[in-house]
Amino acid sequence: MYASTTATDADVAQVGLAVSTVIFTLRADDGFGATDPAPGIWLPLVRRIREPYDGLWALPGGPLGAAQSLADAAASTLETTTSLRPRYLEQLYAFGDLDRSPDERVVSIVYWALVGSEEAKRTLLGQNVRWFPADALPPLAFDHREIVEYALWRLRNKLEYSHIAHAFLGDTFTLTELREVHEAVLQKQLDPANFRRQVESSGLVVATEEQRTGGRHRPARLYRWAQPITRPDLPAARGSASPRTTITTPNPRSQHQELS
User: Fold this and answer.
1) pLDDT tens across 79-132, in order?
2) Geometric angle at alpha carbon 30, from 26 and 33, rounded to 5°
3) Closest CA to 163 of 76, 231, 243
């Protein structure tokens, strides 16, 4: 005899589905609490104005609409709360632990986005939206600190084998700027000469005839990626035109379902 697997009314609970996004940028301390004046990884947070966790900071997000795709929901929430429409947006994980929300069962599909520092300056800031350094976060609602830590882990690992730094730098960059991205993400100082040799011998970048001028230091040669960066279009959000972005394909993994 086999045990019955038919669900009872008590087993069938309402499950909420939400979409949240971790947004990373590279910027220096502007008085919000970073412990190092060198460029670091920052992310915007939104202060909750209702229970649960009223008054605590949280990742930008909200419930998934019945007529929305996941990518549309992520893009729409970002634009509404921060005015950002990042060119790099990737599915990260599905977080669904039973006790992650005190009021109801909620599964959150989490995206992560990378934006350049100039784009980050255009963020819609206010009393309830602020940028924070990743190494000096305030207390966060739900399991959002765990989500941020996982996103940082993914960023550090992906930096080693992909062109992900392009989202912080733009189409051309100096080797110093590229090194600063690696140092900020990896949280360690890199020897400039060794880094230059490794990058130039990797074949990943190509020197251009242009130079960066106007700073405190002498002009520096600009580089570009040897291969073009492919950025498929992001589904349109709120009826606006789609930016160029990167979206990956779902893939199952581990205790939480990994989506990329």
Assistant:
1) 998 999 887 788 999 999 998 988 889 999 999 989 988 888 888 888 899 999
2) 95
3) 231
The β-bridge relationship of strands 57-58 and 172-173 is unpaired
- What span, in angstroms and rounded, lies between the C-alpha atoms of 155 and 162? 10
- Cα(169)–Cα(29) distance, rounded to whole angstroms? 18
Mapping DSSP to helix (H, G, I), strand (E, B) and coil, where does residue 187 land?
coil
Distance CA(45)–CA(75), nearest Å, equals 15
Q: How far apart are the first and last CA of the chain?
A: 40
Query: Which among 162, 150, 149, 159 has a CA at the least distance from the CA of 185?
Result: 159
Amino acid at residue number 192 = P
**pLDDT tens figures, 224-253:** 999 876 544 344 434 433 333 333 333 333
What type of residue is 6? T
